[in-house]
From TrEMBL:
SUPFAM superfamilies: CBS-domain pair (SSF54631), Clc chloride channel (SSF81340). InterPro entries: CBS_dom, CBS_dom_sf, Cl-channel_core, ClC, ClC-type_chloride_channel. The keyword Lipid biosynthesis does not apply. PROSITE patterns: CBS. Pfam families: CBS, Voltage_CLC. GO terms for molecular function: chloride channel activity. Residues 451-509, 516-572 form the CBS domain. The chain crosses the membrane at residues 6-25, 46-68, 142-167, 179-197, 217-233, 254-272, 304-326, 333-351, 385-411. Keywords: CBS domain, Chloride, Chloride channel, Ion channel, Ion transport, Membrane, Transmembrane, Transmembrane helix, Transport. GO terms for cellular component: chloride channel complex. It is a multi-pass membrane protein. It comes from Algoriphagus chordae. The keyword Nuclease does not apply. This is CIC family chloride channel protein.
Amino acid sequence: MSNQTFILILSGIIGVFSGLAAVILKQGVHVIQNFLTEGFYKEYANFLYIIYPLIGISAAFILGKFIFKDTGGHGVPDILFTISKKQSIIKRVKTYSRVFTSAITVGFGGSVGLEAPMLVTGSAIGSNVGSLVHLNAKKRTLLIGCGAAAAISSIFGAPIGGVIFAIEVIMMEISTASFIPLLIASVTGSLTSMILIGKDSVFNFKLTENFEASHMPYYLLLGIVCGLVSLYFSQAVRKTESLMESLDSQLLRILYGGAILGIMVFFLPPIYGEGYDTLNTLIDGNSSQLLEKSPFFSVIENPYLIIIFLAFIILVKPIAAAVTLGAGGSGGIFAPSLYVGGILGFLFAYSSNLFNFTIPLPLAHFTLVAMCGVMAGAQHAPLSAIFLIAEITGGYELFVPLMFVSAISYVTKTAYQKDSIYMIQLKEKGRHLPESKDQELLELITITNVIERDLLPIHPDSKLKDLISLVKISKRNIFPVVDQHKALRGIVTLDDIRDIMFDREKQDVVLVKELMHSPPEILLATENMQKAMEKFELSGAWNLPVIEDGKYLGFVSKSRIFNAYRKRLIKQKQD
């Protein structure tokens, strides 16, 4: 069997297992939610909403911390860091832990999504299958992408969207050979979900209205608004999580987070769980049903109240998602970004129609297109957003506005904030990912691996004649001046002594410390290679000394770095 055929078979297996995990997770959440919330809303204000999130977050944290040894949090940033820094090796426990912890978190009202836990699960399945059959890091990364594609595909019933998301967000590079396994994994994941629970996806509807070119000016305005809202979404999540992390005790995080989330859900029931049912209700044109779920506004039939209600949901949902994760729950912000976008699009069209600002705008169209816009801005994944929503709608009727709004939203967001929410989360934890292939290769090289130790050191109190003795046996033209404590005092080059090295009088009189000078720059053993190359560039030097804890270790040369870089490049191409 050829290597390529073997990878294709593995991608199909990963797709099946990822699809199965997605089915278990979705069905588990639905069972929990139906058990806890069936018969609510209209009869009375159910105060159990206040304690459900606290119970769910506590149970998920205890299960993850003490049983699985894998606590919740964000999924996509961890996957990106694993691929970049940990040779694409994901712990085996992640193949199942997030299925249980996120089902409990979301089922009990945690205001996060299931996509990120499924991405972690699918990616972990891919990584561990790759490790089981002894594949290298590059092929494990491909299988991680297969698991991610299958996860998105099985949740949304969108195989193309799953492939695009894996390429755009998870994988740093793609080729035709690696594109085919992603397709197979995505299709098998979608088929597995379809066979087990039917063709219904998270959004159950078909578009009945046609796209009108006359709506494009309003889509332009919607794109700008989506970009600004995605900026708010990112900032709200980031600041709320920072606030939660400022609490020293995990118990306090759970108590405060559960209580705050419970109060939010009590006053604004649509933010309970993922919230996709709310979007289906809006797209179907049943916006008045939203107020039926509120204990305070269910008897009030006022369209202006709907506008205020939805505006509060847009403001609160990112905070609720961040509180859920910061308190110890398991989930992701993929679904909340889609949710906020859907509410925003509906609010945009509903308000316009209510006040007769423009020609009538189709509510379903603007709801779906805004979902694409906010996802494109928050996650910096415009292509994924376009194909995901296009597949959800069952066709490409909205392809033009989807492309237009996602582009406008992305440009608007990046004008104020260049990093995606995933990159922001990584950087705030001190985890910086390479921004280019060149930087990725450089980060695989460490300073300690390219140190040259064949430069002969000399004491600063030594005489010129002692230095000349070293010149006779040395193959290098640089001599580090090192004292008895192994501290670097300076350097002497052959050019520094060329004019006096044959003067016998000076050989007995001149000391090395009179000849030495400071190196143009100093490298620290703990610095990465990107920083080292910047120092080489700024100093114009070809060789620089390396210091660790104040002690001299050796020199690093550009030629040694280039040689190591070339070997890494050749090895990656061979893999």
